[in-house]
Amino acid sequence: MYTSFYQLIDFHSFYDMYYKIFESLGLSSSASWMSYLAAGGSLSFLAINLLVLATAFYTWFERRTIARFQVRRGPNRNGPFGLGQPFADVIKLIMKEDTIPTEADKPVFTIAPIALLAPTLLIITVIPIDDASFLATLNIGILFIVGITSVNSIAIFMAGWGSRNKYAILGSMRGAAMLISYEIPMALGITSVLLISGSLAMTEIVAKQDIWFIVVMPMGFFVFMAAATAEMSRTPFDQIEAESELGSGYNTEFSGIKFAILFLAEFMAPIVTSAVVTTLFLGGSQGFDFLPGQAWFVLKMFVVIFILLWIRSTWPRLRIDQIMGFAWKILMELGFVNIFLIAIEVAVLMDPVTGLLTSQDLLIMAAINWVFTILTLVFLANLLGKRNYDRPDPVPSPLANMQPKGEK
Amino acid sequence: MTGIRTEPVTVNLGPQHPSTHGVFRLRVTFDGEEIIDLEPVFGYLHRGTEKLAETRNYTQIVTLTDRMDYVASMSNNLAYVRTVEDLSGIEVPERAQYIRVICAELQRIASHLMATGFLLNDIGALATPLIYCFREREKILDLFEMLCGARITLSYMRPGGVFQDADQDFWNALDILIQELPHYLDELETLISKNEIVLARTRSVGVLSDEDAIDYGVTGPILRASRVKWDLRKANPYEIYDRIDFEVPIGVEGDTYDRFHVRLLEMQESVKIITQCITQIEKGSIRADVPYFIRPKPGETYQSVEGPKGELGFYLISDGGVSPYRCKVRAPSFINLTPLKKMMLGWKMGDLITILGSIDIVLGEVDR
Amino acid sequence: MYGLGLIKGLGITMKNLVIPSRQFNVYQYPNKRATPWDLAKINNSKPFTYIAKNPLTTIKSFVGLVNVEEKLPQHPNFRGEEFAWYDNRCTGCASCAKYCPLGIIKIVTGTSGVNSQEGQSYDLEVFDIDIGRCMFCGLCVEACPYDALHMGSGFEEAQYQRSNLVIDINKLKSAEKKPSTWFRPQLVNQGHDPISGDTADWRKVGRHEKPSQEDQSERWAKR
Ligand code: SF4
Ligand code: SF4
Fold first, then answer.
1. A-chain residue closest to C11, CA distance
2. What is the ipTM metric for this complex?
3. What is the pTM assigned to this prediction?
4. Structure confidence by residue, pLDDT tens digits, B262-276
5. Residues B64, A90: Cα–Cα separation, whole Å
6. How confident is the model over A252-307, as pLDDT tens digits?
7. What's the domain range around A346?
8. What structural domains does chain C harbor?
9. Residue B181: how many CB atoms within 10 A of its CB?
10. CB contacts < 8 Å between A and C, how many?
11. Which end of chain B is more exposed for a tag (fewer CB within 10 A), N or C?
C-alpha cells in the first residue's frame, strides 16, 4: 500500500517514464542515456527542493522549540502557528541588497556559500530513507560522507578569508582548526560502526542493525554525536559563529541571497546530521509495521534533532582551546579505546566461516560495552571532577577593614 | 614555533558589538586568539548629565539620575536624594527610609539578575538563562509599576522621602515575590554554577587580586569577589541598614566565577533584607515637608550608597540657589573598568567577553 | 561528579519547558488569537448562538486565524500618555510649566474680564504639551496645586509627524479623561481604575471638594 506510493519517487520509475516518452518521440537509439540523465535530473531537482522545504520547516521547528525552552512563544504571527515565518524570512533575505565589500576577494566570496551548501546537499544522496528510497546505492556510502564533509572547512575558510573582515577571519580560522580536529573523532566513531557492519554501504549498515548500534556501542555513539555537533558548530562547540564574541563569525559580511544560502546550509546541517546518525546508530528505517519505514526514519530524525536543540538551548559555549583540547585529549582517546574494544569483541565473537555476527553476539557486545562505557565515563568524570569542585572556603582579605561607625 | 612569521591583529570590538553591553569600544590586539594589548575607548553615550544638572533644580535632577544606570534607577535616585538631604539638612521619615531600602534591594536583585543573565549570554548559553533571569526581573518591574507608575525610568524618590506611598497591591505582590524568588534563584544556581562548561569558562579566568582591586578603586561585587569584605551598607550604614541583619558574601580568589557567584549570593541576601524590612516597617509619613524649590545653604557634600554596581556617589556644591553649582557623579561602572587591562592580558578572545560581562558595566553610567 | 551539572541543567530546562506556569507571561501583543468563546464574550452573546450565527468565523478562529486586539494590562498607577487636564480646575498658575524639567508645557493666559465676585480671573489661551519630548516623569502633575493636571493611562500613541505629538488646549479639553491614579490618592480611594476604561469628571478628581458657587459668593461677599 505504501510502497506503491513511494515507488513513484524512485529512480527506476522515473527512468521508465522518460524512456517511454523518448521512445514515443522516436529517439529510441539515444533514449537510454537521455532518459538516464532526465530521470537523474528530475530526481535531484525533487530531492533538493524537498530538502530546502524541509530546512524551511526545520528553522520554524527550531525556533519554536528553543523558544519553548526559553519560556517564550516563538514565531507565531505568520499563518497558523507561525508556519509562514520561514517563507517570510526567505523572501526578506532574497529581496535584500546583495552587497560585496569593496576589499573582498570577489570570486572566493561568491563561491563560498555554494561551496558550503553543495556538500551538505550531496550527503543526502547516499542516505537510505527506506529500503527502496534512496538516490544512490554507493558501496562506499559512508566514506563518501566523510570525504564530502571535509569540504565544509574549506568553504568556511573561503567565506571568512574572502570577506576581508577581521571577525570573519577569526571565525573562519577557528572553523578550520575545529572542523579538521573533529573529523578525526567522527571518523573513529564511524569506524567502530564499520567494524560490526563489515560494509561501507549505508543500506548494508542499516540491514545489519538487528540491535541498534546505539545499544551495542554507546561510547561510539557518544563520540560520534559530540564530533558531529562540533562539525555542525552547534553549542557547546559553536566557535565559528560565536555571536557573542565575533558578531556572527564567518558570515559577518554576507547579505541578501548569499546569506540566505549560508543560512540554508547551516540549518540543513542538523537535518543531514540527524539523518546520518539515524542511519548509523538508530537502525535507519527499522520500526514496527504500522508505520512505513520512511515515517520511522523521520520520527527518529526528529528525536535526534530535539535532543540537539535541547542541548543547544541549555549549555553555554566552550572556549576555543578547551574545544580543541576536548577533541584531542578526550574524544580521540575515547574513540580509539572504543575501536580497540569493538575490534577484540568482533574478532572473538564473529563466525569465522560466514563472517557474520548474530543478534546474540550483538547482545553480548552490548552488555560488555555498556559496563565498560559507564566505568570509563565515571572514571573520567572523577579524574576531571577533582580539579573543578574542590574549592576552599572564602577567606577575607587582610586588607579589608570594614568597621561600622562607632564600633571599635 | 620558529619559521612561521605571525603578525598581531588589531580588532575594534565595538562600539557596535553584541557583547559590549552598549556603545563601548575596545581596541584589542590579538596574537592569534590571545590578547596582547587593549585599550578601552568610551564616551559614545556621553549626554552631559553633570552639566545638565547645573541648569535643573534639585528635584528635577532626580529624572536625570534615572538615565545614568538605566537598569538600576532606584539606586541612582537613592544616592542622589541622600546627597541633597545631606546638603540641605532634611530629616527623612522612617517609613520612607524603609520603602527606599526595599526599593533599592529590589533594584539590586533586578540589576544582578540582568548581570548574571548577560554574563551567561556572553559565555554563549543562547539566551536561555538570560530569559529565565528576565522572567524574574519582570516581576520586580511590575512591582515598580505598582509603586510609581513606571518600569525603568522610575523617578520614585524625592529629597525628603518618596513621592507616593505603596498601596496594598504592592505589598501583596511583594509577599508573593519574596516567597518565590529564593526558589528561582536556587534553580538558577543549579543551572549555572554547577555546570561544568561554565566552570571551565570562568574559574581562574581574569583574576584580580585583592591588592590590585583596592589600588584600582574597584567597588561593589567585583571588589568583594576579590576577597575584600567591603560593603557600604555595613561599613557606613545609611538609611536603616544598621537595624538589619545580613551577610556580606565574598569570593575565593577574584576570578570571573567569583564575581558572578558573589552576585548570586547577594541576591539571596537582598531577599533577606526585604523580608526584615517588611516585618519592621510601620505606618507613618512618607515625605518630609520639603518645598518644591529647595535652596540649600552654600556648601558642598559627598554621599554614597552601595549600588548594584558598586559605590555610587554624588558630590554636590550649592551656591544657595535652586540648582547645584556643580554635580559630580562617582560612577562605579566607570571606575570598575580601570583594571580591565590587568584582568584581560594573556587571555583568549572568549575570555575577554566573559571578563567584560562579569564587570557588569552600564554604558549610561560609564559615559554619563 | 564531573558532568552531573550538565545533566542537571538539561533537567531544569526541560522542567521549564513542560510546566506551563513557568512560561513567560507573554501577551500576544498587540493582537491575541481568539477562540470562538473569546469572540462570543467580546460580542456579548452566548457561545453556541455565536457559533451558530457565524460558522465561518468560528472555523477560522479554530485554525487560529482570528485575532482580537489586546493591550498589556497595567496598574492604575501607570504614568502614561494622554494627559488628563480639567479646564474647570485649572487656574493658569503655570506651576506645571515651571516645574517640568524639559520645559515643554506652554501656557499663555489672558484676562477674561473682571468677575465682580471673584476678582480678576484668567482665561487659558494656550496650553500645549509637547508629548514628543516628554519623559513622563510626572513632575508637572506633582506640582499642580489644584489637581487640574493628571497623568494619562495610554501608551503606543505613535504619530507620523512630530507636530502631531503636541497636545494643544482643544485636544486636552475634548479628550476622554482617564486620569491615572498616579500621585492622586483620592482617586485610589474612590477605586478609580483608568485601565478598565473608567473616566472621571472634574468634580471627582480633586483632593478637596471645590467650594460651591454659593459658598464662594458668600465668602467673597463678606470681604
Ligand atoms: S511628565 Fe515630566 S516631562 Fe512630561 S510634561 Fe510633565 S514634567 Fe514635563
Ligand atoms: S499647575 Fe495645574 S492649575 Fe496650574 S496651570 Fe498647570 S494645570 Fe493649571
1. A314
2. 0.81
3. 0.85
4. 888 888 888 888 888
5. 44
6. 888 888 888 888 888 888 888 888 888 888 877 777 777 777 788 888 888 888 88
7. 106-381
8. 12-69 (no CATH), 80-211 (3.30.70.3270)
9. 21
10. 48
11. N
